[in-house]
Amino acid sequence: MPIATLDQLSRPVRDLRLSVTDRCNFRCPYCMPRSKFGADHAFSPRAELLTYEELARLVGIFAGLGVTKVRLTGGEPLLRRDLETLIAMIAATPGIDDVALTTNGSLLADRAATLRAAGLRRITVSLDSVDPQMFAAMTDSPIALDTVLGGIAAAQAAGLTPVKVNAVVQRGVNEAGLLDLAEFARQQGLVLRFIEYMDVGTTNEWQSGAVVPAAEIIERIAAVHPLEPIAATIRGEVARRWRYTDGGGEIGVIASVTQPFCTDCTRARVTATGELFTCLFAARGRDLRGLLRAGASDAELVDLIVGVWHARTDRYSEQRSADHQSGRRAEMSYLGG
Prior knowledge:
Blueprint: E1 15-19, H1 52-63, E2 69-73, H2 83-91, E3 98-103, H3 112-118, E4 122-126, H4 132-139, H5 145-157, E5 164-169, H6 178-188, E6 191-196, H7 214-222, E7 227-230, E8 240-244, E9 250-254, E10 267-270, E11 275-277, E12 286-287, H8 289-293, H9 298-310, H10 316-323, H11 332-335
Parallel strand pairs: 1-2, 1-10, 2-3, 3-4, 4-5, 5-6, 6-9
Antiparallel strand pairs: 7-8, 8-9, 10-11, 11-12
Helix pairs in contact: 1-2, 2-3
């Protein structure tokens, strides 16, 4: 039986997000702006990254604490060689019943089938625009939109359905393309999630005026395709979901800024270099790699993780809304979102 692990707000740990690399082949301005992540940027050396054996060991420990879902992130996780090996190890872990991946889709077309065969069950592709020019501007990359669309099609063909698509919405940038994204998702049978532009890290120079509130997003879509709300099914579900009344699928909004959901957050995050974070907006984590490589027992690792989680009081988004918090925070590309 899993060890009962609750934080100071009685939130259990149920979801684990594992970053496998801090590298990415896109330079999206809201995540890895090229001005801060240029050619001379020092990414984590390979020796500092957790090995697949170390990552799988941590998954087993977290499963013993009640985690049932694991999502692999980055950077761009498909830049990590032989990721299918890690997926198979996680999928075989007792207690883990959901293995997912978030990717920019640029390397997905040739990998979707092998990822599915290894045990991947769900995939989310980041796609902020279906206009080629806007896509190029938002990714700051020579990789074409058609490459990502091909990856999405390959994921569907491999049985990773329904494929989810995440779109970060910024005022004055890609907000004019909201309906185009919705139409694309409806036509292709995708589950679309609009995400409010968040102040993760500090390099993106976030301003609240660039946020398009979730309520406005839903209002714009519903004006063309009427929507009705879908009730949440589990605690910790971050997206508020809506279905099209004509049966054309569903969309969701992740409204960390205007409608914080900290009270029900059940996510723990481990970076590619082995730091444990209990909040997406935290400034620092706790080192697990040092313990792993010093020969710590599973019991010692459990003690540390349980202690960190039990002391957890994080509710940054709620406090940000009330106090307009600022200060240095870990970057999205390091935390893995």
